[in-house]
Amino acid sequence: MKDKFSVQSKIYADFRPTYPKELVEYIISLCKNKTLAWDVGTGNGQFAFLLSEYFQKVYATDLSTNQIKNARQNSKIIYKVEPAENNTFNKNQFDLITAAQALHWFDLEKFFSEVNRTLKPKGIFAVIGYSLIKISPDIDKVINDFYTNVIGKYWDPERKLVDEKYKNIHFPFNEITNNKHFKITADWTINNLEGYLNSWSAVQNFIKINNYNPVPKVIKNIIPLLKDKNLFKVKFPIFMRIYRLI
User: Fold this and answer.
1) What is the dihedral of CA 29, 72, 181, 115, to 10 degrees?
2) Pick from 33, 235, 245: which is nearest to 143 by CA?
3) What's the pLDDT tens digit per position in 43-87?
4) Mean pLDDT (the chain, rounded)
5) What is the CATH number of the domain that holds 123?
6) CA 226 distance to own-chain centroid
7) 4: pLDDT confidence band, cut at 50, 70 and 90?
8) Can you tell me whether residue 188 is helix, strand or coil?
9) How many alpha carbons fall within 13 Å on the CB side of residue 82?
10) Mean pLDDT of 123-146
11) Which residue would you say has higher pLDDT here, 164 or 65?
């Protein structure tokens, strides 16, 4: 697993969007028991924090010490710095395993083996991600151009899996048919948007190579397109794949 977020871990914690409660409740409804959950690649603990409302205990792991340092604290959450593919958990330990906007960074063959080992029989494995931000047609055009033409070549190859919504990954588990559609929605300021763009790994890769930040320029181009300069609505379409262990 690559550590792509230690440098901007504080930015990540402050500006990454939060998943809707309806999404979590849907995943929880599929779980037979709600004793132990494992959130893998937890980052700043966003999804682990939401799971803690329903589970007796949630283990949350990430490769990045800095991410864990900036994670949301909760007495039900046990944070551990360790890779997804090589952990210290027991066989058949978890009722639910989740990976939210993280799966593409893992060594999938090794990680799937760990899911198979640590998940209880009939346990749920849920993979969640979200697509590119949506604001308005004019602004989306600017962001899409920035995403593709300005920082496009600075994305790691794994980002393609997110763009494909994980559809081309082979999962060695029994998939649960899902017709549900969820999205992240929020009211943001221009500061929120700038912080979010700065949290992108491709932006950090760009800065390392070019020695300047490309985000202020794209923000400058977006500001005149905002109908409301104070607060505006943002949306992130969510995609997910859910499995039940035999």
Assistant:
1) -60
2) 235
3) 989 999 999 999 999 999 999 888 898 888 999 999 999 999 999
4) 92
5) 3.40.50.150
6) 27
7) very low
8) strand
9) 14
10) 97
11) 164
Distance from C-alpha of 151 to C-alpha of 215, rounded to nearest angstrom? 10
DSSP string, 130-175: E---BS-HHHHHHHHHIIIIISGGGS-TTHHHHHTTTTTPPPSSEE
Token readout for 154 is: 């600075």
Domains: count for the chain: 1
- Residue type at position 221: N
Is residue 1 assigned to a domain? Answer: no
Give dist(CA 238, CA 246) in Å, integer: 26
Asked if the structure places residue 121 within a domain, the reply is yes
Q: Which residues contact 157 (CB under 8 A, 6 or more apart)?
A: none
Residues 169, 124, 101, 184, CA torsion sign: positive
- The single residue listed with the structure tokens 């198979």 is 116
Q: What is the extent of the structural domain holding 70?
A: 9-244
DSSP 63: S
**C-beta separation of 85 from 106 below 8 A:** yes
Residue 122 within any structural domain of the chain: yes
| H-helix segments, the chain | 9-15, 21-29, 46-51, 65-69, 108-118, 137-145, 159-163, 190-198, 201-210, 215-222
Determine, yes or no, domain membership for 3: no
